[in-house]
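Q: Predict the assembly, please.
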Amino acid sequence: MNPLMSWVKQARSLVAPALPQCLFCGRQARSSPDMPGICLSCYSRIPWIRRPRCQTCGRHVGCPDCSRSRGPVPIRCNRSAVAYTREMREILGQYKYRGNERLTPLLGQMLDKAYALLQKEQSDRQRTGGTLQTHFFCKPIMALKSNLSRSNLWQADLLVPVPVSTVRLLERGFNQAEQLAEVLCRRRDLLQLPLLVRTRHTAKQSFKSRSERLADMKHAFTGNMDAAVLHRLREQLDATAFRGQQRPLRIIIIDDIYTTGSTIRACADALHSLCESMGCTAEIYSLTWARS
Amino acid sequence: MKVAVYVVEQGGDWEARISLNMAVDQLWWTGRETNVPGWNRQPADRIVLLSRSLPLGWAVKLATACRFTGKMQHWDEAAWSRGAAALLKAEIRAEQAAGGGRGRDWPFEEVEMYRLVGAKGYGGGEEGSVDWGDGRSEWTGEWMNEHGNERTNARVDRRISEKADERVNGRRNERESEWTGGRMYGHGNERTNARVDRREELAAGADRLAEALAGRSLLQGEAEALVAEQLPELAGNWLAAAQLAYLQGRLRLEAAVCGTAGAALGLRRREVLRCLRCGSVPTGRTACAACGLAGCAYCEACLALGRSRACALLLRSAPLPAVRCTAGVAPTVTARRWGLSAAQAAAAAAALGFLAEPRKRSAAGGPERFLLWAVTGAGKTEITFPLLEAALAAGGRALIATPRRDVVLELAPRLAKAFPADVPAVLYGGSEDRWSRSRITLATTHQLLRFNQAFDLVIIDEIDAFPYHNDPMLAYAARQVCKPEGAFIYLSATPPVELQRLARFGRLPHARVPVRFHGYPLPVPRHVQMQPLNRCLKQGRLPKRLLQALQHSIDRKAQIFLFVSRIAHIDGLLLLLRRMYPNLTIEGTSSKDPARAGKVLEFREGTISLLVTTTILERGVTVPHSDVFILDADSGLFDEAALVQMAGRAGRSKDDPAGNVIFASAEWSRSQRAAISQIRRMNAMARRQGYFKS
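A: Predicted assembly structure:
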């Protein structure tokens, strides 16, 4: 190009208002006020799960899996931020397989919305379940106040990311669940601990049927026996005990996607037995970015 | 990934190397068994293993930045550790700033020195200054022992695998020990013969790998896929074969993102990180589990082809010599053989002459370029056939790169027919031939990123089209694929202004094909005055003169391309036109239309008689009996090239060579005038050269 023309072009681009590039569609457009980083039209198309139909697994549509098997489920409930539509699959692929880690804070922020939903639900439950006790000890006005205060909101004690196998970790360079948990930790001032390890390398889940996944995932995880990690878990247990709360440890398992729930259930089983060995009980929830 | 890095002294010369598999290097530098081809014959005198697992990017930098001085002869481990750390000072500091700092001597806590038996200075006074630890003397035992010794080897292996447990890099070392213990020596029955066999096997593997990777530029994952498909017998051990090929100097092991000299700032050249594959400057930096750094840079521009990062291994073959593409046949014979018209033959002869002339090795270097400026419908593809033939006849490799996938798919059978002996490798996103090798490669532009100095002749189709235009990544990729002594042929009907200027001033060799293959002049566009289209749509009617022209085309039963500048106008215009011409099949399509491919096909088949569309159909689609209407031709979105291309849709067939082209606009803009004058100029030139059918 003519050097003068290119100079003029550069000068013009200097004067023009800079619109940020949308992380989802790549176009330069006005970013949404709620989620800086993506444009308004992409934001409006996110398939949020605001009201899960299935109270157990957080699915946005009717869930035959949960109603079919009446067996004991190792988790209290799962909540997911978005429905796993074609667009969302594309986004997750960009992040997980192509390695566009610039999406981390954004996806983490989306997961945070699911956390907010879980928190609200659990707080409501706590309040309705625990009203009698509160009235008994405090004046009504105090109760109202403390209900609103942050300390009385339901909070998780611990986040545990689903681990990926060493092979995958070396190939990919990061564990998406751990990264998402990290964003959540920073936003909500929580703690994450790698309490789980993979016992074996399982082939990619996305190529398998439901029954294959369920069989494959059994005993794929076990508790982390690393002394430093267990020490920090002990500290966390002591801290909750110190606050005088006689309740089980609230653990949230973090993952990118919940499909059949086999991964989450296997993780929850491993966590229960780990907690048992530590002499405590746990209430396990799970939070995933997408629900298929 | 992490690799080992060491320096080696051989006959007074020092070299720094990286290693994917230390066992191979160990064998290489012992230099025994001189009868095995492909292996080093001269043993090394001394090896200083700086680190067994250093992030690849650092190791590569260390190996390239290492300058050897006489002082190093007397360095001990601590001195080597300090010296190596000094070379990586900037990196170590940046890493510590990112929160990844370790101990004081990190990352060179464990420098190991080895000396070979019989080597110069062995057993001399210097020995005392080197502190051989227990494990080390064991390993030297292996170095010194001519026929190896199973017990020693087993111990070495154990030591390696013990080390491996401490490190993240478990997988590589696991394979390493397996290789030494199992494959290289055979358990129990220790025989020199077996070892020779293994060496031969590995050397053969390295040969095959180097051949399969010739001219390639692949990330580790891509190379792994290539090996799995093309060389399945190497699958488990290909890194060892790659290491041997690297030691032989046939393969380059690079970090995909690495520092290059940037613009001079003051007295010192500042180092800039660059993605070696696509040439972009990486902007992302994240913690990486594969190399353990807190700030491992990665390239965001070419993510779609697999992530290129500072610790990702990029395998490239060593540069291959280029051939001169001389045709042994006279141009007239070639023309007759390929059935070229006079104008085509003249251009082909000019291009062949360019290919055959000896290269002027200018100071700037790099491949030379030739522009083939052929009007729309001139039959560019046929002109390239003699050039391809010349390249193949000289034993070279040729590439045709085109921006669009459908062109690749359309061209592939034609090429296969023209060159039955060489089945072209057809490459596009998701194609089957991804890793196959052929003398002719036909690829979309993004696939070029997977090659490096591979081709003697590179033909770039539609150089002005969308992906190259203003995409520095693809421009870089195109530059990279050609051998330094090779040649580029650019094809275009509307070359970018820069190339036109170079051609005009005689600084770019070029040939023009001013006439279509059928020998009739290009239709010259006519201007029709109209209000801006959005106003017409608001009023719900089109200007009378435009309607007259439309009616004329409909009466002569031509298929009509109706180009608009904005996707938003398509629906409104469709409503209006369907109301006015209820008997006509009218459709609209754009880049956002999911049914686009189907509609284009129907239009080609003639079931749709009027297609409202945007610039997406400015190229490629050829309909024999067609007229072209461009509304809002004064829009800024239609530049001269786009107008010429759209006008080029008309009059393509020899049965209907004179189609109508209408520019409808409120203003008679510069680009419209330039487009018309370009078309007129080409026609005048064709007339002057006597190419028109009388």
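The interface with chain A takes residues 1, 168-171, 221, 284, 286-290, 296, 298, 300, 303-304, 306-307, 309, 497-498 of chain B (CB under 8 Å). Residues 118-190 of chain B have pLDDT under 50 and may be disordered.
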